[in-house]
Amino acid sequence: MQYILLSVLIGLLSVTSANPILHPRASPTNTNSNTATSSGTAPCAAVSAAHFAPTNPDGTVPANLAYECLKSVPLNITAAKSLMGEIRPYIRWQTNIAFLKNPPSEYIQKIQSPVDILAGLDQIEAQIDSGAFFGEYDFGSALYKLILSAHDGHFSIVLDSVGNLFNFDRRVPLVSVSEDGVKLPAAFVYADVVAQQFNTISYTPSAVVRIDGQDTATFLENWSQWGILQDRDALYNNLFYELAQVSIGGSGTGTGTFSGGGRGRWAPLTTATTTLTFANGTSRVYNNIAYPMFSLSGIDSGEKLQQQNFNYYDGSTANTGEAKLQAAPGAKAAAPVSGSTSPAGYPPYVVAGPSNLVNGYYIDSPGYTDVAVLSLPNFEGDSDYEADFQSTNRNFLAKAVADNKTKLIIDVSANGGGTVLQAYDLFKQLFPSPAYLPYGATRWRAHEAMDLIGQAFSAVCPLYPRVLDTIQFYVQEMQSTYFDYEEEADVNYKPFTSWPEKYSPRVYNGDNFTGISRYNLSDTLITLQSGGIDITGYGALAGLSNNPQPFKAEDIILVYDGYCASTCSIFSELMRQQGGVKAYAMGGRPNTHPIQAVGGTKGVNNYGWDTIQSLVSLGVRATSGATRTRYQQSTLGTDYNAYGPFARTSWASSPGCNVRDGLRQGDDSGTPLQFRYEEADCRLYYTPEMTVDVTAIWKAAADAHWSGKGKGKCVVNWWPFSKREVTTTLKTSRLRKRGANDAKVMEELLNTLTIKTDNQLRGSGFMQP
């Protein structure tokens, strides 16, 4: 036994747990070299000339030229065919492949159309063989759009041709607002709304009625599908400028997908301009631009760009050069620590958290002095700030109670997730009683690779105590994963007794899934999954379960912009289903229909492909003798060795899968939360003031929920049989009162227009923007 353990540990010490395993393979050479252009000058040469022109200080280039340059990069056919085979093992980990192909009817009717991912991959391979792709961009774009069509923010494959070269931008952020909260909303140029709200213009802002000759709502609904969200109203909201998104700087979707934020930066702008036509009959033309994300020095053709920026791995070095990456001009990130001023459009904070990812506020206005607001645009995914995030929540709730606040608004606008267990912790801070045991049921897709890893880990881990000071680092690494059967609890919150009991595959919708598991919040190794925190009410913090509940459920409301995803969806599920808290959803398409609160992925755990590859390697090396030989000959030893999936995917968005489905308590159908339609309790339109002052959102939600005077009215409950007017202009009656600080506030807001998505956040449950 001692010899076996020693051999296992020696094997483990050679594992690299964080980085992809590098295995050499032949450098592909077969290419499609068609490079026809629409002008006498090669597109990439024209892009380079424009970038370095003395009259172009910011280095941007016309979007149409950038697009033509991308199209001129020839396709390496051999590399493309190899890559398509190399990515399939990772896609096996994606939990909802079967449900995407055959979703419930309500999902098709109200959310998205079905998509057969595996058939789509087959089609792309056939197109490679038939020569249907002109170049690398056609190939990369086809794969990107296929995965994007799943509208699962955890499922991501962005190839180098799509994500490494140019970011597209319209430079004209829009907002969608109702003049008075009653009329149907319409799109306006945000700069016009800001100027009107601060009374610095002499004209009346007019609604955008056509974009490039097409009806605005139709154009925007179609364009919104470039977004990563699932729900169509959430996708529509994400087109626009929003204070919550810009409050977290480059970690969010910037000024909206219409103007190149979030996934909008990879939506190709194929024309030189965008024309907006307004309700008053006037038009404005805006230049479409692209930000080069690499060095254009010496780039005079698609072939040259390919040589310097595409890594067709040959086992030693990049093919002919290294990509020289540069940040998009104007990209800004959120402040790294607490203590800075509040974000633009926000009041002074009462308690500040790390990087503006959580702040506590009061509403300093008559009629709202009993309301506290927890602004929560993220569930912190940086281990350096996990404890700060937890303590910010705790300190603010305690201060709010001490200051006689009796009502709490939790604003989860812009919240794409973060660390999964932070959602559990905040729920338990709000509902500390042991009676509120978080349900949080999850399951995985059952397949050979994960079963083998589970068998290997579960054979080794019980031989060691589950203690934090275990000297064998890789044993502790295994013990803190799902694949040790001792980790987590069963559906009844009881311990598993073996890996077969935990794995216990069963069939739903024609696919194989594991049995249900739940986080064991008292596990001694919980801090290895939570970024270092114990969960309120459990383990070292078990005594806090005796704390009084800070706010009654009826005195808490959740405010959403539809972006809530991943860990945020977990928090929402706990708060609404177990806590009984009401949900208030903002914005949506220009209609009077109910809308969902959670519009992002409702998957509950994402794995980067590097994490999967590390688990695979660790699974093999956790074995010895004949078992190791068997593992080396299995899918673990043969399917995860290629470097292509890492060399060819974008540095701006690591490839990943949703590895856990969330399941509703009491639902025996096996349908993941991702495929359940669930309306908010109330819908409110955005108004112009809400785009410059976030407290206007909080006041509207407070009025709708708590006002006994009928001040606040939910959209679908007011005038249900009346046809509503459409907002066409913003009248002077909506102007803000001039104040001494207005010039500074307006400047801060206008400065946010340069924020671009930089995607710096991570987490065990985080949707990349």
Automatic annotation (TrEMBL):
The keyword Signal applies. GO terms for molecular function: serine-type peptidase activity. GO terms for biological process: proteolysis. Residues 1-18 form the signal peptide. The lineage of its organism: Eukaryota, Fungi, Dikarya, Ascomycota, Pezizomycotina. The keyword Signal applies. This is Peptidase S41 family protein-like protein. Residues 370-580 form the Tail specific protease domain. Keywords: Signal. It holds the Pfam family Peptidase_S41. It comes from Lophium mytilinum. Residues 167-291 form the CPAF-like PDZ domain.
